[in-house]
Amino acid sequence: MGQPELEIIVVDEGEPFKVWTHGYPFRTVRWHFHPELEIHLITATSGRVFVGDYIGAFAPGNLVMTGPNLPHNWLSDVAPNVTIPQRCIVLQFGAGFIETCGLLFPGLDLPRLVDESQRGLEFSATASDAIGPLMRRMLAGDRLSRPAAFMQIIEELLRDKERRMLASVGYRVQPSVYMTQPLNHVLDHIARNLAFDLRETELAALSGYTPSAFSRAFHRQTGMTFTSYVNSLRINRACHLLTTSERLITDICFDVGFNNISNFNKRFQALTHMTPSHYRSRHRENDQHRLQPQDAERSHQLRAAGA
Would you say the pTM of this structure is higher than 0.85? Predict the structure, then answer.
């Protein structure tokens, strides 16, 4: 296999992890790596799994944890032109977060789990059966409920005595080598410089490609055009700022790298199907409708009294 491709993971500030799902085919279904740890649950299809230098089979219920920068991929045996709406649930989190958890709860032996994950860990069917509902709960939950479900997942992973490491004993990740691939360097540059002017011709020169070759290679690796990819990262960051700060929308527009509010509004609406102000107000409505414990008890008392 060739050099793995870098995947940029955008985790919302204020949340230590990202839980999401995707179908098949999908742009991240490729030989790739990222600095974050990942727990990957297959919910549909079977096929071949690649983790480091390991190659094996997978089926629904396959549960694997990969460590930082460990290359991995799942290739489903699906007929051409067939689309699977949900192939897996993915939970990703930074090494710093899990290290902090280990310091707060030294009895959990988290360092051992993280160390084993550097070769990739496959868990038993029993663990998968217990963790599947928890990952679905995280997927459907909010910021209040997800941390508890996350800690339950970690508990189940630690309890699984049948877990096994996948890559060989001598296998070592080489992120500095992976980053020598021109487009990996470009994707990292984009993620670090979203607030600045990013020109495709300049990044093509940075990568060593001609502009036309860069455009083709970029689309092949990310599944998007250069402009769509940059805009999606910028809008994702804008969504976070809209829901976690009181900054003016015009300030957020420039903070995430757009140079005029009209273009920002247009791109935002194209990706979220609502305006930035509507997006912010919807999230505020959701927060306001979340009952406090005393409100919930009062509501229960009124119903019991027939009010």
Answer: no
